[in-house]
Prior knowledge:
Elements: E1 3-7, E2 11-17, E3 32-38, H1 40-50, E4 54-62, H2 65-77, E5 80-87, E6 93-99, E7 105-110, E8 129-133, H3 140-147, E9 151-155, H4 164-169, E10 172-176, H5 177-183, H6 185-188, E11 193-197, E12 203-207, E13 210-215, H7 228-242, H8 246-259, H9 273-281
Parallel strand pairs: 1-4, 1-8, 2-6, 4-5, 8-9, 9-10, 10-11
Antiparallel strand pairs: 2-3, 6-7, 11-12, 12-13
Helix pairs in contact: 1-2, 1-7, 7-8, 8-9
Amino acid sequence: MPSMVAIGSINLDIVATAPRxxxxxxxxxxxxxxxxxxxxxxxxxxxxxxLGADVALMGRVGQDADADAALALLRESGVDLSGVAxxxxxxxxxxxxxxxxxxxxxxxxxxxxxLQLASASLDLPDVxxxxxxxxxxxxxxxxxxxxxxxxxxVTLATTQEVDDAVLRHADLIVVNESEAAWYGxxxxxxxxxxxxxxxxxxxxxxxxGTEIARASPPAVSAVDTTGAGDSFTAALTVALVxxxxxxxxxxxxxxxxxxxTQRNGAQPSLPTREEVDxxxxx
Length: 282
């Protein structure tokens, strides 16, 4: 069982599910509203836990009812939450998500307490791997990645400045197509692994700018794509730390991402190891 720590955002997702997404300036009036726990680091922590890893989460929430809801599934699944601080002067992060009938989504995030993680001093546990997201220069996550001695996986975001040291030294960086294009040569020329995701078309894995593996996800009926990327990232990290080959690890990650699209909500949709293995067997 690999051991991991996830560092980053913890949110409560407020989801409006409708037959279609609104266009600019338009209104959709027939949506159904639900609330789910979410946040990139929280999603990855729970995904890794359900895939068999021993996981700790480090982040920030408010001292409010939203925090209880945001942490409920993590606590229920046995994720170590001792590194999650509840702040009296900030609200728990909230993501406003619109989901269409075909599973596509639009997301607006009010980060709240997550913003205060940047200035924190983090005492990292002794684990095999670190999962983190969107590391800006000088913030707590960037410093953690820089000094962590195990396997490091970093998820980047579009048009967000990232620490050059992270681009140079992270063992694995995960991006989608638009993020890969935005970071350009700085990402393409780095040493180490880069995973590029292409939605329903699958993903490719690169080392030192050369493609070393490519995989397509199993065919599924997508309900909600929220959390699929976090499921992919956690699964790829788990598989690589377990010692799976690059090709097998990428197939495993694509199956985990596909499995996460079959239910509503980010965290409720995250698959177990058995569900992923079943998809891989066809």
